[in-house]
């Protein structure tokens, strides 16, 4: 299942023989560690809220934090992140404020997407985090366009697109990778191979030996990395980003990881996989591995862990309280943004549904 | 008669027909472990292990594979997890499945059934809540079925599985769990036969999918005010039973068309224009349409409520028509 892949830290947090830790200052390392813990805690909290009926739906990333955060951290703020839907950590790296993420999950009046998209489908154009789209794989070609745009504008911005193992079955993956190769775009195609696509295991998704080999057919470089090793992911992605900036073209990165939770809160993985399969991945936990390393280096201890835990919990609590305080979006916004200028037929529909009395009844009804 | 939910009714049709006809096979994403998100294909893998394929994620390949299999005599039933993702397979649907028989001089049929979970439900927004009947109606060669009850769903699925045409089988997600009586004896419901769900003298309401239930509820409310709605469910939009609709309009002289599609260019436009063309002399008032707002489906519950057509909108349209 694991096969050959680039790694730096062993699951026990030791530096593998011959491996070199990428040059990251201690405060950067601790920042990464905090983001991974924050990602995990946000997921836990949201899944709890969903179970309590206070949130409609949620997609968690438990076990995939290193793949997501390590890769996003290799980017500059001006680079584009094109997420799939499981990359909360990349949004956090990009500086997406928690309150904006939470507001999106609840679709309230502070939500940048104006209550229009499902939970987890956030977007922030200013931060260069593009809008998350439900149809699997449809975001991949966007990363070719964004990268091509950078080339045409004469700058060296890169675009990194996330997608799952399941998405490699979609035509969009293949045509996008082909375009990337032909146009030599500064694109990082980042496949989170978490072994599952809802109830379908990766062996039923492709007969290829792995995902990285798929790059070969399109004439681009493919790399396979231990997705639960924060240093290895960061290292591989940094090199791909540097190459892209130099104008030397795209890279397909396969991060080998595991989806520990259900596909989403609507999914019960017990109906199609054995707990025994999950066990080894708990030992391979990316946060634990990083903590063991930091501890061994003398940078971390139980007190620091507790302090971080408390800080992260308080941060989440504060943003949640703030998100809960915001009401629903105003009703007339439902007709905005369909077109640049609202055409007569929508104005007519807006006036017919948004009489002042109806405003009242609808708002009271929720 | 047993009362069962619509997802079970469709499942029964599949199981019964698969037992009867060995050329039927099922394919789609997650159709084995979960029986699809709505458990429609549950049990098929156990019953007919060789006749179901859980596919990699590609709607284009699913529909294309189904077309190919149909060309050599199979009857594929493909599930597209949400109708919204049929977009990924539109070339196969529009340029292939719908036209192959015609383009090749009628040498071969393409009896593919695409099962298409549709409509709003559970707040899943713009890319998981669409109703695309009108797109499919517009393509010559495709039949379009829109069951509103478990009984109709089972009977229509059986007809689909015995016909020779490609069928876009629209399954409203919100109706999957709604129970209704289903005969425990063998029956089929032919395509092109509308069902009068309620008789009334004053207004003909042609309703499809989830709007049938809402129209019946509106009818109950209006009956107390002395307005009697006749609720007609076409059940298949292609072929369309215009006889039943026209004779109702000739009786009531008023018509409302209602469905959950966005209104502009929706199937309601086709129905309204057919009524205007054929029943002009009988109409006492313009034909009305009650459909979804012309916007992508929003997520926020207060916004979704505005976009989806409601009983209140039906009541307002009906009261206005008889005023
Ligand atoms: C075009 C399309 N088909 C089907 C779906 C339903 N669906 C949502 S996520 C998913 C699995 C994706 O798996 P993968 O790409 O491995 O990503 P992961 O969820 O594992 O992160 C499927 C089939 C969809 N959203 N879009
Ligand atoms: Mg996956």
Sum this structure up briefly.
The complex is a heterodimer of chains A (366) and B (323). With 366 residues, chain A is an alpha/beta fold.
Description:
The complex is a heterodimer of chains A (366) and B (323). Chain A is α/β, with parallel strands linked by helices. Chain A folds into 2 domains: 26-329, Thiamin diphosphate (ThDP)-binding fold, Pyr/PP domains (Rossmann fold); 331-366, no CATH class. Chain A contains 13 helices and 7 strands. In chain A, a hairpin with a 2-residue loop joins β4 (196-197) and β5 (200-201). In chain A, α1 crosses α2 (65-72), α1 packs across α11 and α5 (140-153) runs parallel beside α6. Chain A is globular and about 70 Å long. Chain B has 2 domains: 8-181, Rossmann fold, CATH 3.40.50.970; 195-322, Rossmann fold, CATH 3.40.50. Chain B has 12 helices and 14 strands. Helices cover 37% and strands 20% of the residues of chain B. The longest helix of chain B has 15 residues, at 6-20. The mean pLDDT of chain B is 97. In chain B, α1 (6-20) packs parallel to α7 (150-162), α3 (59-71) packs parallel to α4 and α9 packs across α10. Chain A binds chain B through residues 56-57, 107-108, 111, 114-119, 121, 133-138, 166-167, 169-172, 197-200, 204-206, 266, 271-272, 328-329, 331, 333-335, 338, 345-346, 349, 353-354, 362-363, 365-366, and chain B through 29-30, 32-34, 37, 54, 56-58, 60-61, 84-85, 87-88, 122-128, 264, 293-296, 298-303, 305-307. Bound molecules: thiamine diphosphate and magnesium ion. The site of magnesium ion has 7 residues of chain A, from β4. Thiamine diphosphate (TPP) sits between chains A (86, 134-136, 163-167, 192, 194, 196-198, 259, 263) and B (29, 57, 59, 81, 85, 88).
